[in-house]
């Protein structure tokens, strides 16, 4: 991880017609990091991610990629740099896993460059990395919730972008597959990609993230490493939970143990 930032937002105010969610928020995503956004429900995590991905146009401030507003960039150019796994993605009826994952190669296609060996290799690699090779010929509609989630992650991986945004990538997955996906994210980071994810499990965030952004009420409440953010004081302030933080015997990272409520 470096001190450089390809993706950033400054003075960002963003939300939906009925209400503003983010207010005057500034963030820089460290290159080569596995940045995880965490916080209580409705604090603005997904709104921030969607704003960084150009799915929501801010009412104030700006989102910059390599110093240029993402709203000024051609769609395919942005899609070759930033990949996105949105929440609750819906696949077309009857589409197979292989065809869905192949759609991740669309930004790399143009009039004079059609499907080639590098596209095939990218799709096969994405299927293998997500454990979906054996299900490549299955229709997405016939998969379990966890299998569908892994198919969508494979499509995002096939896009082969240097930046990857993942909105709750472990949703619908059992614990074994949650760990597989988080280990995959860590490996992609080690290989040089920059990842930004929204996660809910505090201990998974503390264990896997190289950079943590803790949000509350549409603002950044704390930011930094697991050791900097994973304190009893910060967890109490952000989540309203009294806890004991100890050293994880497996990783040496902070491990949060909630205290039993006093009745």
TrEMBL record:
Subcellular location: Cell membrane
GO molecular function: ATP binding; ATP hydrolysis activity
Membrane topology, from the record: Peripheral membrane protein
Superkingdom per UniProt: Bacteria
GO biological process terms, semicolon-separated: iron ion transport
Pfam family, one: ABC_tran
Record protein name field: Iron complex transport system ATP-binding protein
Species of provenance: Nesterenkonia jeotgali
């Amino acid at each position: 991880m470096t001190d450089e930032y390809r993706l950033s937002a400054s003075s960002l105010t963003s939300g939906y017609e009925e209400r503003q969610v983010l207010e005057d928020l500034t963030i820089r995503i460290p290159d080569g990091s596995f940045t995880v956004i965490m916080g209580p429900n409705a604090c603005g995590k997904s709104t921030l991610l969607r704003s960084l991905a150009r799915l929501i146009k801010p009412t104030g401030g700006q989102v910059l990629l390599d110093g240029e507003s993402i709203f000024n960039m051609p769609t395919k150019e942005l899609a070759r740099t930033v990949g996105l796994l949105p929440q609750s993605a819906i696949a077309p009826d009857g589409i197979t896993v292989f065809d869905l994952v192949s759609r991740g190669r669309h930004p790399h296609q143009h009039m004079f460059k059609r499907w080639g060996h590098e596209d095939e290799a990218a799709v096969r690699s994405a299927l293998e990395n997500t454990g979906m090779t054996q299900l490549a010929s299955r229709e997405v509609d016939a998969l379990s919730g966890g299998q569908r989630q892994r198919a969508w992650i494979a499509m995002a991986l096939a896009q082969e972008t240097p930046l990857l945004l993942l909105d709750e990538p472990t949703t619908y997955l059992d614990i074994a597959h949650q760990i597989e996906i988080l280990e995959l994210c860590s490996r992609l980071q080690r290989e040089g990609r920059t990842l930004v994810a929204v996660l809910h499990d505090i201990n998974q965030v503390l264990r896997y993230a190289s950079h943590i952004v803790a949000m509350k009420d549409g603002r950044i409440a704390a930011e930094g490493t697991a050791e900097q953010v994973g304190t009893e004081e910060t967890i109490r302030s952000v989540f309203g939970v009294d806890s004991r933080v100890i050293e994880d015997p497996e990783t040496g990272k902070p491990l949060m143990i909630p205290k039993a409520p006093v009745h």
